[in-house]
Design goal:
This protein is mainly α. Helices cover 81% and strands 0% of the residues. 27% of the residues are buried.
Length: 196
């Protein structure tokens, strides 16, 4: 067997583990899914799983990183569709809220993520996935005078915290108008930042 074939097989095994774990974690939650079930549905051995991941928590971390990356791409895609800097910013923020209503994203990123990894590790992954992008957008808006001059780091954390808290609330909301109401509240909050 050539090295290229072995590399492809390892990649396929890793991909199967990630895909099946993501599906199981999203539908049933981290605590309800065991490693035996993961390897069974992925069609691999426990040895193959341990070749790629130290255990269930490390596998979950990899799944969470993918989910956060997917959300970051949705946010960037919505922002990049706008030409105006303010519209880019608000579209990205709104895209985050909308993405966070996806049940898969809610369960993995918002419910299990902080519980499994702990707040500090979850926050570090969140900052790596989307916090940097938010800080860049805010810096641009301050630079262009669309937001009053101020330190960007605290503003980034305040907005990120508010949007994450809103997303956590939306994950448990039963009111059908919750997303629309939250999006409207976010628009008002962001508009209050705008330099007059």
């Amino acid at each position: 067997m050539t090295e290229g074939i072995r590399v492809r097989q390892r990649e396929q095994t890793r991909r199967a583990l990630l895909d099946e774990s993501r599906r199981l974690f999203a539908t049933r939650g981290y605590a309800a899914v065991g490693l035996a079930e993961i390897v069974r549905v992925a069609g691999v051995t426990k040895g193959a799983l341990y070749h790629h991941f130290a255990g269930k928590a490390e596998l979950f971390r990899a799944v969470l990183a993918e989910v956060q990356g997917d959300v970051a791409r949705r946010v960037a895609g919505a922002a990049d569709a706008e030409r105006d800097p303010w519209a880019r910013f608000t579209a990205g923020c709104q895209a985050f809220l909308t993405a966070s209503t996806d049940p898969e994203i809610q369960q993995i990123m918002l419910v299990d993520g902080p519980a499994v990894l702990g707040w500090a590790d979850w926050r570090a992954l969140d900052e790596a996935a989307s916090g940097r992008h938010l800080a860049e957008e805010l810096s641009l808006l301050v630079e262009r005078g669309l937001i009053a001059p101020q330190p960007v780091a605290p503003l980034t954390h305040l907005l990120s915290g508010a949007m994450n808290e809103a997303a956590l609330w939306l994950a448990r909301a039963t009111d059908p108008s919750a997303l629309d109401d939250t999006r409207a509240a976010l628009d008002r909050m962001l508009d209050a930042l705008r330099a007059r």
